[in-house]
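call fold(seq) -> tokens
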Amino acid sequence: MKVAYLFPGQGAQHSGMGKDMYEQFEKARAMFERADNILGFCITDIMFSGTEDDLKQTKVTQPAIFLHSVVMATLMGDKFRPDMAAGHSLGEFSALVACNALSFEDGLILVSKRAMAMQKACEAEPSTMAAVLGLDDNIVEEICQSIDGVVVAANYNCPGQLVISGAIAAVDEACEKLKELGAKRALRLPVGGAFHSPLMEPARADLAKAIKETTFAQPICPIYQNVTATAVEAPEQIKANLIAQLTAPVRWTKSVINMIDNGATDFIEVGPGKTLQGLVKKTNPSVNASSFELQT
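ret:
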């Protein structure tokens, strides 16, 4: 039996997230308070008692999900024994910290810089993303390529579920064409910009310098990175893939398939929500997928 640990990305946030860990575990409390100091604002207040709108701010959402995931992995202690790991978009940073490729402090600083750079890119050009359900990936790709404007396949989440990303008009046009071709759904998502598309190039450039200057170590297990969907352990390759990730698609379906091909029988999601385990089951119903539940 091989265990793969999964770390969620943007969209997994919810009001009250992490409050139980903060109240019950001294180690968690220390990490949350350290995060407040590093970020320069009380992210714990927003996580524990902020509104859904407060949590949707990119500068809050990304550090909040990262923090929740990494604290939970830390509290697992000796129970955290991954044979392999992966994170969805932002979750890749959580996976790298949990697997000792990156320190907690450096990981949080990079996630905060990433969020701010992405927010800046979103404000520079109005853009969006849309979920497309019920069509083969190649059909979605062909339609995106046929549109006069920036729209690309951004998140390959599971068979029959793909997210497109780009300029608002181009995304809307693609959605109409995809519905005509039989998509069960082609609907804009409530996000602030076109993540994992060429429109994130300014953010990629901003983040590249910070990543290059940060020290990475070899992780305790292979990390299946979004850009390649393959197992990576070399620190320099991990850094290159993290930089490329902002403008490249999240190849989640292929990552899950490759992990299963390499022996993964059990997938454990670490962090808020249950999105990733659902995607695993839709990709291959025969494997086990669950959340880690802390014992109080």
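The CA atoms of residues 152 and 165 lie 5 Å apart.
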